[in-house]
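cron nightly-structures :: item 1 of 1
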Amino acid sequence: MNWTTELTQLLSDTFEDQRIDALEKATLFETFKPLSSEQRAFVRNQAFDIMKRHSRTAQSEPPFKWLEQVLKSLDNSMPKTTYTGVYFSPGDECLSALLNLIDAAVQSLDICVFTISDNQLRDALFKAHRRGVTLRIITDNDKTDDIGSDIDDLNASGIPVREDTTRHHMHHKFAIADRKRLATGSFNWTRSASQFNHENVLILEDESIIERFCVEFERLWDEFS
């Protein structure tokens, strides 16, 4: 049974008595929570289609309460965007936000940055690696040989590193911790970015956004293998 059939059947089951009890409401919420935008649009259309079919065949008032409850469950189950912080440099705000992200990681850190030359960030990554966090780093080969670059040291410690070796730049600056927290923004992982540059870092927890970044990381990881 595919997802369209399952969702249609679920809506039909809740429509039988034209009301949604507490158990059905909880079932709808849990079923709707992981749905994509396409699947949510399908549910919305199916609910209206059920209403239309009922209106054509029944003499009673259309069950608007049922429709209202379905749509409310659909809207309430949407993942909430959670911004945990916005940070700016010059100054220590951006660096501290990234250090906190790294130090809080428990299982994994996927880092996709143009360059790493700030030794505080390097040392935090070493610590995460030693405590068993699975690290992967994607970077740009044009910066690897710069004076002060920490990429070779990180790679030599056993942290897998893949580089963009094309004539173009892998210019991302993002990091994903435990697949549930994301750091992104203009901030390069360098001392000058903290001390002199006007930069920003955004830390957020949003399943749908983080999933897009995870997909992009995996795509680049495969591309630069």
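cron nightly-structures :: done
The chain has a mean pLDDT of 89.
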